[in-house]
Design goal:
Largest sheet: 4 strands, mixed
Mean pLDDT: 94
Helix content: 25-40%
CATH class of the largest domain: Alpha Beta
Shape: elongated
Strand content: 25-35%
CATH architecture of the largest domain: 2-Layer Sandwich
CATH topology of the largest domain: Signal recognition particle alu RNA binding heterodimer, srp9/1
Number of strands: 8
Radius of gyration: 17 Å
Structural class: alpha/beta
Distance between the termini: 29 Å
Number of domains: 2
Strand order of the largest sheet: 1-4-3-2
Number of helices: 3
Length: about 140
Amino acid sequence: MTREIQVTIDCADPNMLAGFWCEVLGYVYAAPPPGFANWDAALDAFGVPPERRNDASAVIDPDGAGPRLFFQRVPEGKTTKNRLHLDVRAAPGRTGDQRMAALEREADRLVALGASRVQRHEPAPPMGQGHIVMVDPEGNEFCLD
């Protein structure tokens, strides 16, 4: 039996980080529960006070192919390297200079959105095709692959 997965990311600002990842992946914010026109109406009905409305946020692949990403506010900041990270497939099927140029273009786009570059790894065939290590606006590592 296969299972659907959700990737949960601890953070300080769920709505901001969810918006960043929407831009990175082409995702959209998850729709409010059935019967509600928007999230504010749902949260009003659930009795969630305004100061708690950024405790969580979720984004989904509009085509339904990728996993749901769930962002939850936690009190502590990030202190060490992630043990799990996302690889954003920004240059599938490309190799060599063409691959690295595509990764560089995507890195520049993501830096403009608030990401930071960490390190470029050059191609080292036969196993290493080259990638760029990045961090999102809250310091979570991910790779452009």
